[in-house]
Amino acid sequence: MDGPIAHALRPFPGGREDAPIAFLDRDGVLNMSLDGYVNHPHELALLPGTERAMRVLRDEGFLLCVVTNQSAVGRGVWDDERLHQIHDRFDAMLAAAGAQPDLILACPHVPWAGCGCRKPRTGMLSLGASLLRSEHGFGVLRQRMNNVEAPPNNDDVMVGDRGSDIRAGLAFGARAFHAVRDLGLDSLLPRLLDWDDPGDRVR
C-alpha cells in the first residue's frame, strides 16, 4: 500500500476550506488503549467523555479527522478489511451521540518502511487537510491520495498520547496537545478551545 487507508462513510460535499481541523489519535485519546492491537471491533471501548468532547468540537466549527498508526496491517496480523470493520464499529459507537468523525485515516505501514504517512511524519494530516478542505469534498478522493499538498490552518489542532503524535502535529503546523494516555480528549477540551493556548512541545 502506497498511502494511508481512508475510511469515509458519509459524503463530504466540501466548501469549508477555512474550517479548523481537529486531528485526533485513536487509541489512548478516543478509545481505551490495549497492550497490543485492537484486533476485533468488539475490543473497542470509548473513553469517558469522548462523545461529548467530539460533539463540542464539532459545534465549535471543527472538522474531525482521526489519524492512527496501524502497523498490524503491514505486519500481516490482519488485513485492511478487518481495519474497516473496526472503524465501522468505531463510527457507529460515536454516531449514536452525533459525534462521529468526518474522516478516519490509518497508516498501515511498519515503522521501518520509510513511508510518509506514519506519525511522526505528516502524510495523514496533509491528506486529511487536502480532502476536508477541498471545494469538491470526497469526490476527489482517489486523485487527492497522490496529491497531499495542503497548508495547515492556524487553528488546526493535533491531539495524541505519544511523542510521535505531537511531533507530527508540530511539523504540520498545528497546535499539538499531549493527552494523558486513557484520560483522553475530554480532559483537554478547555485548552483546545482556548485560542491563546499554544499547545505542548514534545515530551
The name of the CATH superfamily reads HAD superfamily/HAD-like
**Roughly what fraction of the amino acids lie in strands?**
5-15%
Number of helices: 6
Helix content: 25-40%
CATH class descriptor name: Alpha Beta
Give average pLDDT, whole number: 90
H/E element sequence: EEHEHEHHEHEH
Structural class: alpha/beta
At CATH level 3, the topology is Rossmann fold
**Distance, first to last CA:** 31 Å
The name of the CATH architecture is 3-Layer(aba) Sandwich
Q: So what's the overall shape?
A: globular
List the keywords.
single chain, 203 residues, alpha/beta, Rossmann fold, six-stranded mixed β-sheet
Question: What would you say about this model in short?
Answer:
The protein is 28% helix and 13% strand. The chain contains 6 helices and 6 strands.
